[in-house]
Amino acid sequence: MNKYKKLLIGIVLDAIGCISYFIPGIGEFADVVWAPIAGWLMTKLYKGKPGKIAGIVAFVEEAVPGLDIIPTFTLMWLYTYVFNKEK
């Protein structure tokens, strides 16, 4: 998959994770549903050990109240394509 397509998908998924802030009363339930989905999607976008670690981080970030604002998918893209010097 093209790295810029992954970036776009990541930004959309980060936005979905933030939607719970805008739905009063339903937001916490949405986080309970979204957290495992976000973790699973992260492992599908990024393979190997980094993807698994990022999947756990995404799950925890979405499951813990107040941390939804962290753009985990975008940060993982930056780590993979900008900061990681392996390859």
Q: Can you tell me about this structure?
A:
- This protein is mainly alpha-helical and 87 residues long.
- It has one domain (3-83).
- It contains four helices and no strands.
- It starts with a helix and ends with a helix.
- The mean pLDDT is 89.
List its traits:
mainly alpha, 72% helix, elongated
Tell me the number of helical segments per DSSP (H or I, 4 or more residues long): 4
SSE string: HHHH
Mean pLDDT over all positions: 89
The Rg value, from CA coordinates, equals 13 Å
User: How many strands?
Assistant: 0
Span between termini: 16 Å
Beta-strand proportion: under 5%
Q: Tell me about the largest β-sheet.
A: none
Helix-strand category: mainly alpha
Uncertain residue segments: none
- Globular, elongated, flat, extended or rod-shaped: what is the shape? elongated
Question: In short, what is this structure?
Answer:
This protein is mostly helical. The protein has one domain (3-83). The protein contains 4 helices and no strands.
Write the SSE topology.
Blueprint: H1 3-18, H2 27-45, H3 48-63, H4 72-83
